[in-house]
Amino acid sequence: MAGKPGEGAGVARLRAWAVNPAEGGKLFAWGTPGDFKRCTTFYRGKVPGHMLDGWCANLHKLATGASPGHAPAEEAAKKH
After folding, report:
1. Does any domain span residue 1?
2. Is 18 in contact with 28 (CB distance < 8 Å)?
3. Residue 79: what pLDDT?
4. H or E segment at 78?
5. What distance, in Å, lies between the first and last C-alpha atoms of the chain?
6. 39 closest CA partner among 16, 10, 68, 78
7. In a domain, 75, yes or no
8. Three-class SS state of 28
9. Is residue 14 assigned to a domain?
10. d(Cα 17, Cα 80) in Å, to the nearest integer?
């Protein structure tokens, strides 16, 4: 996503917004079933297609500390 001068700070702000529980994190509801799908749906067309899954996987890990599908709440939901 970065590549032009000045884009690095914008990407950092977008990343911070996406994982903040009071901002984008509220929209994605990280750590709950369907969070990865909500992320890819939201960013489709905004992030280059070949980067979409990786972008959302990285956001998920930043927000929850785990890879998609492996956050504690997601693991607990699988067991029920």
Report:
1. no
2. yes
3. 72
4. helix 72-79
5. 38
6. 68
7. yes
8. helix
9. no
10. 31
